[in-house]
Amino acid sequence: MKLGSEMRQGARDITLASRIFLAVAVLSMLCGAGLLAYQQGVFTPRVHVLFNAGTADGMNTGMAVKLVGFRVGSVEGISVDNDLSVQVMLKIDAKYQPMIDAGASVRLTREALIGANVLEIRPGNGDLGPIQERTVLRYEREPSVESAMIALLDQMAPIVGDVRTITAYLSAPEGDFRQAVRSVNLTAGSLAAASNEFTKLIATASDRIEKGETRVSAVLGRAEKLLEDASGGVTLLNSSLKQIDTALPGITTRLEQSVENVRVTSEAVRGLVTGELAGIVVDAGSVISDTSEVVRGAKRAWPVRGMVQPPRESVLRLDGGGGLTPVPVDGAR
Amino acid sequence: MRAALMLCLALGIAACGSAPPQSDADLRRERMVELNDRARAAVGRGELRRAVVYYREALRIAESVEDFRAIGLNSLNLAAVHQALGELEPAHRALERVLAAPSRFDSAVIGEAEGRTSYLALQAGQLDTAEKWLLLSERNCQPPGCRRDTALVSLRALLTLERGAAGEARKLAARALAASRAQGNREEEANALRVDGRAAAALGEQVAARAVLNQALNIDKQLALPHKIGLDLLALAEAELAGGGREAASDYARRALDVSRATGNRQQQDAALKLLERAK
Asked: Domain holding B130: CATH number?
């Protein structure tokens, strides 16, 4: 009898203990769930704001809404109106309400080169006061890197065209420029020949002037003829230079256009490099760094830490053949 | 009930699995160890240029926090890799970090640096300088605490050989060979055999030289040590040339050139090209 009653008492104790354990477990679960819900912001008061966009491309329900890099809310819903405009509803944590004015705009942007799309709120001038429930904000789409590159290529195209035209113009055998240069060369050649002849004649004349005045007049006659030749050369040179003069304004205009295009393009390139590309590079660096952190953290976490050999320091010990023998640091002495 | 138990179990596992937080100092230290480990792996794969980059970065981090232990360690490693690449000047610069301020470093690190400097001087043909640093390194090495004694004997044998005392060099090489075999150190065994073979060739004992150098080559091939394979082939070419075997010498020199080109060792490439020229 006594044994039976002891066993019943024992069974009752076990039942009681298991119920207490169950109650504690359920309570812990509820607390955990409550804590999780609190962490997720279930109890956080929200403000709803709207904006209209031309397309819902790149947007989805639940995507982050950021203000100066902080997550301040998320996309609650996306709907399309009868006029095919897309209406996007955002829920913003109420604590950020005073920081966002009704004149703010929303921009669809990307967190990094390969990152997710986010909506970024850009503050306005503050004249309209803070946002209220169902305030409608302006929406603008950030130009993507692809479109910036296409714009850059569009700007480069006329430069390449101009360079090609100028090159063709300068190298055309029958073109004004080449003909002008050829004429200059010819004229310069004939001038040089005439000059040589003239120098010789003067030398001869001065030599012979003493020998007889009778021959002086003949010599001077030849000199006069040569001077006329030279004058013809100068006239030809003059006409060649006129040709160059005529051609130059066209070339100059084209060169100026090209220089202007280069200037505009280099501005665009500078903007791209100092703005978006720099951001992209920094973001890509951050992504790599974050990935490295995650991998490092995973390596240190159970159960992965048991599977991965931890890194060990080693020293390349002195070797009689100049070899590279790594030994763990403790064994290097 | 079962669901609750599963949840508790999952929470328990997640709690066990979470990585402990780390301080900035821990992160730096971990980064240095990781770089050192990566460099070691790169050396193992024969990617010496990559190893140089890793050791330099580890050294930079160590210098930024004045971690003298890590500075010493990574300076030695950097010098060793530069030496294996045949870049003597950068190797000297790396060792200078340690030798310029010996009071900051452990005596073992100083001893290693002195030994390495001696070897670099030997490679540069500065025998007196090599002798000076070797003496210092020997003084800093007291077995059993010092583990580089066999390497120092090999180095002494090499220096003696370079001074022209081939007979004495063979005796020292035999000592190094016995010590390395006693320790089971195959790399030092090959080093001792190489010095012995070169000394034998210098004494005109071509058959013995060829046999010993081939033994060294076999060990180095088994251990897959490209720098040493290059040295063995050069020594064999030299031995063959001394014995009048121009064709065999040319073949060994060509093989050494191929190996040194594959490893990017400029000094060995130059030596192989000179031997090819002499073997014509």
From this structure: 1.25.40.10
